Amino acid sequence: MRYVQLGDVPVKHHIQFKQPDGTLYKEQLFGTQGFSGRSSTMYHIHLPTCVSEIERIGERRLEAVPDDMLKHRHLKTRSFQAQGDAVSGRIPLCFNNDVILAYARTTDRMSYFFKNADGDEALYIHQGSGRLESMFGTLSYTSGDYLIIPRGTIYRLVEETVDTEIFVVESLSPIEIPRRYRNEYGQLLEHAPYRERDIRVPETLETHREDGRYKVRILARGIFHDYYYDFHPFDIVGWDGYVYPWAFNIQNYQPITGLVHMPPPTHQTFEAHNYVICSFVPRMLDYHPDAVPAPYHHSNIDSDEVIYYANDKFGSRRGIEEGSVTLHPSGIPHGPQPGATEASIGVKETKELAVMVDTFHPLQITKQALEVEDPTYAMSWKG
Is the torsion defined by CA of 150, 152, 154, 160 positive or negative? Predict the structure, then answer.
């Protein structure tokens, strides 16, 4: 990521930086990988360590179903009742030691602030618009945005309307731009499917000086705590560095097309440890005179594939709805359903829109996910 500065900062790090009354602003180094990784430096009005009350809420429970059935699955997430806010309303679908995938459709706005100290978050905003307010400033979002939020960031979503729909990727490792898209200086290369100007960073920094009682819910070590402060947590007058939330809209992904069918790695958008995130977007299809635009059947012997469908225009699947999630586990092949390959011949473009997560360790499915499973999906390849 590129260097960003917002607000007021002193001319050098670690020197005196005084408030109008002569007291010092409180400097904080915010690093997500100790002192050797990327970091930002921020300047608070109050001590960021000054907490007035701490309450232990309880452990986060991810309940895997002891199901050893190896089969493809189709989850209809819109069968879930809308509930909660952008954090409390998350319904876990599947997980492993690297990533947790969840779904949320909200009924409430966040009345508190949240900090995920266990992992980075990629929030794909399927429906909704509003503002991501954080300690780094304000970032507007709309449908189709990926919001990339580094671990440890205090934030809240301020929705313009409720009923926001979100596909949540919670990562136990940093979510990065793929290395093959960047040169040795970190700049995006010419062949990358997006560029720096497609990435949106916090737009404004509003320094809050008011006192009161403010709750920050923190997830750390798998346990939720509520921290209460006597001042607004966004009391930062300035910051600079390389760590901050940012947004990228899926519609700005530049698809790579070819003479014949292009494989899934051409859709890769982000990467993390042991998994990748890909974007399927509207695009022109293959242009060989004998091209077969539908994907060929393939065996993911070493990875699980999860696709979240942002519309119902996926040509290789029957019965897919907007908001569907498919899970194709490692060990067995998957591909187009009967008739889809033949129907794709001669088709020049696709309108599909979807987010794919490929993991390199098996995912465990949750009890909640099975409540909205289409039981006929595994047999849908029968003629």
Answer: positive
How do residues 180-195 score in pLDDT, each as one tens digit?
999 999 999 999 999 9
Q: For strand 211-220 and strand 113-116, is the pairing parallel, antiparallel, or unpaired? A: parallel
Which residue spans within 89-243 are E strands per DSSP?
91-95, 99-105, 113-116, 120-127, 130-134, 137-141, 145-149, 154-159, 165-171, 199-200, 211-220, 223-231, 236-241
pLDDT category at 383 given cuts 50, 70, 90 is: low
Q: How far is CA 80 from each of CA 67, 75, 77, rounded to the nearest angstrom?
A: 21, 10, 6
Residue that wins the pLDDT comparison between 237 and 335: 237
Cα separation, 351 vs 283, in Å, equals 7
Instruction: Quote the CA–CA distance of 325 and 102 in Å, as a whole number.
Output: 10
- The CA–CA distances, whole Å, from 195 to 21, 246, 267 equal 44, 13, 15
Beta-bridge mates of residue 241: 4, 40
Residue type, 97: N
How many angstroms separate the CA atoms of 186 and 247, rounded? Answer: 18
Cα 89 from Cα 85, distance rounded (Å): 5
Residue 123: its pLDDT value, please?
98
**Mean pLDDT across 260-279:** 95
Residues 103, 91: Cα–Cα separation, whole Å: 5
Asked if residues 306 and 363 have their Cβ atoms less than 8 Å apart, the reply is: yes
At 337, list the tokens. Answer: 């359903």
CA pair distance 188, 178, nearest whole angstrom: 10
The Cα–Cα gap between 134 and 191 comes to 32
> CA distances (Å), 290 to each of 286, 314, 336, 346, in order?
9, 21, 18, 9
pTM: 0.95
Q: Which domains does the chain have, with CATH numbers?
A: 81-234+243-249 (2.60.120.10), 251-379 (2.60.120.10)
| Predicted confidence (pLDDT) per residue in 151-160, tens digit | 999 999 999 9
